[in-house]
Inverse folding.
């Protein structure tokens, strides 16, 4: 999956790319307490791979790191959506892109890019 398909299935990625293409700052105009309180970096528990992914899941598209515990999950463009599943299971509100050159964060609770 690439381009428009990624952006359609992966809401934070789509928002990030639209802001960048528009030449705007890659953050939501308003922020929330979750983004304010979350660290900007955390050590990933499994750098470079999705923790839950199995061969049956296919390949992941992008990786995300939970800024509460360091869990690494695949994005919503990947079939299992492990990063979102982690949020739904734990309530940990903020993740960060684990992709090279990207430092944006996403608050699942308030659906804001930070």
């Amino acid at each position: 999956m690439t381009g428009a398909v990624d952006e359609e299935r992966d809401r934070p990625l789509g928002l990030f790319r639209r802001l960048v293409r528009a030449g705007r700052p890659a953050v939501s105009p308003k922020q929330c307490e979750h983004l304010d309180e979350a660290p900007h970096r955390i050590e990933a528990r499994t750098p470079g791979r999705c923790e839950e992914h199995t061969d049956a899941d296919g390949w992941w598209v992008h990786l995300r790191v939970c800024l509460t515990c360091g869990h690494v999950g695949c994005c919503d463009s990947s079939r299992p959506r492990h990063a979102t599943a982690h949020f739904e299971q734990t309530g940990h509100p903020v993740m960060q892109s684990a992709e090279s050159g990207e430092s944006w964060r996403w608050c699942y609770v308030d659906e804001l890019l930070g």
About this structure: DSSP finds four helices and five strands in the chain. The first helix runs from residue 4 to 9.
